[in-house]
């Protein structure tokens, strides 16, 4: 039986191996947690989308909890406020650079909702970005703000024309009327011709992502670190035993 003779080198190697293994295990656990988050997101989206479409007025008010209605299908009738339109910069479609257009839809009861009307390519003429005039009927899916939810009616003089995320609080700050605490991702503009810009953005792809494979990799690295230490320690033990035998001879 090989006896391991502990040395400073082996003690240092054991400490390093334990640290590396602990870090790898922690990263593996984090990836498992990310997997569960992804699965919860997918389940929430599927649960919302399985519900039949409801009218905006039935589901949404200015004080509704965004978590309670996100991913629900809705229909809405109203008039676009093209003068308050914002460009959501840095969004791609099939690898092509572009932006999304965020346009308030003002309904008959005074409630407005921000509508992501879809993707436009870089360099599109401003006249082609204008929303349809008059009353429109649209279908879409509700999403929570990517920033803070809207608060009080803001000051329309504080205006920005471009954002990098759907920040409803920032948008509210420049509108003279209240908006819903969720926004709508447009799916079916019934008054638009097929192929016209903007192109309605697809719904988020539902997959578990690479988190499980990443977790397996991190746990494998932790095992390698520990097994590697044992192999080195056993080799040193055999070397020490052989040296001791030679000395006895």
Structure description:
- The chain has 249 residues and is an alpha/beta fold.
- The protein folds into 2 domains: 63 residues; 137 residues, OB fold (Dihydrolipoamide Acetyltransferase, E2P), CATH 2.40.50.
- Helices cover 38% and strands 25% of the residues.
- The chain has 5 helices and 8 strands.
- A 5-stranded mixed β-barrel has the order 2-4-5-8-6.
- Strand 3 and strand 4 form a beta hairpin.
Which structural traits does this protein have?
OB fold (Dihydrolipoamide Acetyltransferase, E2P); 5-stranded mixed beta barrel; alpha/beta; 2 domains; 249 residues
In short:
The chain has 249 residues and is α/β, with parallel strands linked by helices. The protein has 5 helices and 8 strands; from the N terminus they run H-E-H-H-E-E-E-E-E-E-H-E-H.
Outline the fold blueprint.
Layout: H1 8-50, E1 54-55, H2 56-59, H3 66-69, E2 73-80, E3 86-93, E4 96-107, E5 112-121, E6 135-144, E7 162-163, H4 168-172, E8 179-189, H5 211-248
Parallel strand pairs: 1-2, 3-7, 5-8
Antiparallel strand pairs: 2-4, 2-6, 3-4, 4-5, 6-8
Helix pairs in contact: 1-5
Q: What's the architecture of the largest domain in CATH terms?
A: Beta Barrel
Cα-based radius of gyration, to the nearest Å: 29 Å
What kind of sheet is the major sheet? 5 strands, mixed, barrel
The helix content, as a percent range, equals 25-40%
CATH topology name of the largest domain, in short, is: OB fold (Dihydrolipoamide Acetyltransferase, E2P)
CATH class of the largest domain: Mainly Beta
Number of helices: 5
Number of β-strand runs: 8
